[in-house]
Amino acid sequence: MVSAVREAIEITTPSAGLTDEVQPLRRKIQSVERALSLLELLAEAPSGIRLNDISKSLALNVSTCHHLLSTLVDRGYVAQSRRDRAYFLGNKVVELSGSRMRQFNLADTAIGDLRTLNDETGETVHLAVLQGDELVTIAVLDSRHAVRVVSGQGGKSEAIHATATGKAMLAWLPEGEIDRIIKRSGMNRFTDKTITDRKALMEELRQVRRNGFSLDNEEFQPGVICVGAAIRDHAGAVVGAISCSLPTMRVDAQRLLTVETDVKTAARTISENLGGTVDPEVDGVSLPS
């Protein structure tokens, strides 16, 4: 148990200088590089470009180009004109670009309130979104305590069922959508407290809706408790969630109540700045049963 807790918290000490750091050898995947070069070529051809011209421009044989294009067309990253058979960027590229811009906008909007939450609690703060079925952390503000929660600097996670941000967003999805996501991502066990039963998770999500906040009680990292709350946009849709993570050694009933209040207040303020509210009754959101 002690070793597990050591993985979840970090004791900061003056770091020694590192010399002669060895950079790992970067390995490249040829097919990926070719696909990216193809997309970049299409981005420079607003009117589209035909197969033979793509082959010449990339110095690849026609068969290779055709296989790459077929795969990208199937995935929606490339489309083909019926009129002249020219290829151009597909809607999936636009969707990804729009999704990334929305994340930047959310992070820009939320950063001031994240800093306030970080200052008021003194603990690690996260901002996360759902990308498809995946939980993605897009901002992390570290605790200033010597003993603090270590959760990495963002990225994707398959712990949507075991984290405060994940549960804060799952709680407001239709039940069928929740089932689809947990079926795809799984319900992996991270600690002996992780919820891995669907019925228990659904009851937990009902509690989230009732209380207005989510709780990760050592479900993802031993020795760490996280409190989360959903963020809504002007249409009432949940567009993200924030959380505050703290070591169990600094948690008692009063401390937890204070953090819960601070997290809900921050989520409400961010939502209001987006034109929304964290109160689903105000927005007329249809809740899962």
Oligomer: single chain
Q: Report the β-strand fraction as a percent range.
A: 15-25%
Classify the secondary structure makeup into a structural class.
alpha+beta
Could you estimate the helical fraction of the residues in percent? 40-55%
Radius of gyration: 23 Å
Shape: elongated
Architecture of the largest domain, CATH level 2? 2-Layer Sandwich
Task: Spell out the key features of this protein.
Beta-Lactamase, 289 residues, 2 domains, 19% strand, alpha+beta, elongated, 10 helices, single chain, Arc Repressor Mutant, subunit A, disordered C terminus, two-stranded antiparallel sheet, 10 strands, disordered N terminus, six-stranded antiparallel sheet
Strand and helix layout:
Blueprint: H1 2-8, E1 9-11, H2 30-43, H3 51-58, H4 62-74, E2 78-80, E3 87-89, H5 91-121, E4 124-131, E5 134-141, E6 147-149, E7 155-157, H6 164-170, H7 175-185, H8 198-211, E8 214-217, E9 224-232, E10 238-247, H9 253-273, H10 280-283
Helix pairs in contact: 2-4, 3-4, 5-9
